[in-house]
Amino acid sequence: MSERGLSQRHTQYREPAASPRFLLLDFARFVAAFSVVMYHYTLRDTGQWPESTRQMFPDLSLISSYGYLGVQLFFIVSGFVIFMSTEGKTVSSFIASRVARIFPAYWLAVLGTACLRTWLAPELGQGPSFSQVLINLTMFQVPAGVPHVDAVYWTLWVELVFYVLIAVLMALGVKDRGYKVFLFLWPALMLLVTQSENQHLIDVTGAKYSAFFAVGMCLYLIHKRGSQVTLWLLLAGNVAVGIRNTLEFTVPSNPEDGRFVTDTGVAIVVSLIILLMIVLTLTPLKHKGYAWMVRAGALTYPLYLTHQYWGWWAIRSLDPVLGTWATLVAAIAFSIAIAYAIERWVERPVRPRMRRFVTRVLAGKS
């Protein structure tokens, strides 16, 4: 199968057919998800391993402690590719593509994890209530103040807020100068929100992470329109806000929470993530890579959605039999296998049908 054919069948985000694919960016998405997987499996002490992860993975946990910053990488990638996906699309086609992309795998993940926690592995913690599951299926549990069925879902609301903002900008017919104004005002406003004492407002607006989406949007505008002083200044400003918010909200004040991260270490890692994104989007490497990277990128979303509880269940079940390192490898393989099954037998067949259905609904057709 040709590289272009693979892009059409396995890509998470669609772009005009004439545009070369950012293959390394696909792989970067997978790396972001995998770093979060390693953070949850080898750093967080959740009682699934027989001992503290610090004791079981004394060296690896020093590295995986920074794995949660994969989320920042994923938000930057989203800012770039979601903005790119608006090219040549109407508002309705953009909405249809986003709904079809995020909900099929998400619905299955919510229901599967709820069943796992309730019946198959209640030792992982009290299962969610029926009403909690229903509200989670809407993806509106954050504004509703309802707990997530799986804590990793918190990022989905942040993504959804970004999608809504992009749809609004498209509906308003915003062009280049308008986007520059937006890339200044939105993160600045969200910075003010983070200074408030209203935690619910901070969560509902996704204020802590807006700058990372803005970084991705800046990179896309530089890629598409060429190097401009204003764009580089906007990029630098959003990088500064993003690093500031990461240090403010993710570096633990209590080292006993299980992470080894430091202010300096986090600032360096986030800076390297942004430098990596610059290399992957603005240098001759941007269209390099291999077709299999598209497949890896396609696994990102279902892997992120399902890895936590299903992986913990595998760890708890297999460690007494296989031992530490074999169990870790098996849990990772198991999570990737689940992600592949969802991508292959749920997302691929359901996504185009749902996109057509939502398009018809938005057009007022039955």
Structure characteristics:
single chain, globular, mainly alpha, 366 residues, 17 helices
Main sheet overview: none
Structural class by secondary-structure content:
mainly alpha
Question: Which consecutive residue ranges, at least 5 long each, have pLDDT under 50?
Answer: 1-18
Give the topology string: H per helix, E per strand.
HHHHHHHHHHHHHHHHH
> How many DSSP-defined strands?
0
Helix content: over 70%
N/C terminus separation: 36 Å
How many helices? The count is 17
Mean pLDDT: 92
Determine the strand fraction and express it as a percent band: under 5%
Q: What is the CA-atom radius of gyration, in angstroms?
A: 20 Å
**Shape assignment:** globular
What does this structure look like?
There is one protein chain. With 366 residues, the chain is mainly alpha-helical. The chain is built from 17 helices and no strands. Residues 1-18 have low confidence and may be disordered.
List the helices and strands and how they pair.
Layout: H1 3-10, H2 23-42, H3 53-56, H4 60-64, H5 70-84, H6 91-120, H7 130-138, H8 141-144, H9 154-171, H10 176-194, H11 199-205, H12 210-225, H13 229-250, H14 263-282, H15 292-298, H16 300-322, H17 324-362
Helix pairs in contact: 2-5, 2-15, 2-16, 5-9, 5-12, 5-14, 6-9, 6-16, 6-17, 10-12, 10-13, 12-13, 12-14, 13-14, 16-17
Question: Summed up, what is this model?
Answer:
Helix content is 73%, strand content 0%. The protein contains 17 helices and no strands.
